[in-house]
Amino acid sequence: MFIPGRHFGLVLALGMGLAIAHGALVRADPANQPSLADLAQARFDAANKLFDTAWSYYRQKATNTPFVYFASHRLLRSELDLSDKRDKRIAAYEHHLSRVKNLQALVAKVQALGRVNTLEATEVSYYRAEAEYWLAQARSSTETGTHHGGTGPVVDQSPQSPGRDS
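RE: above sequence
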């Protein structure tokens, strides 16, 4: 008979043992571990498939606008992690802006039919303004480097004097 709490230590020890064994197996053969570039590409491929699926579902009215945007944002972040070259990073922001523009155009069509509320249309307007800002920021930046998961482009983060616009 299983008594909660009575076997807690045994279950905990078994779980810890499995976790330690799994960690040892993962580190046991580093030659078989995928490279960072391979992982970044796999992440990009998964994000691309997620966006395509989200877009398809949205067109069928099976998901909402924020989810499509979220999928596009994930795709942007994964595309940024594929390269540290400035032109490739700018292209990633351009791709994101294009996806957001397509989303906004579809929302406008559906709104004209009276099937989208004003809040959703306003939300998409924000998404577009954000994407345009990030693209402009990336184009004005002279810095290159690896994207480390931040939302916007890599820019010079040096302290600025008070009153100076960033």
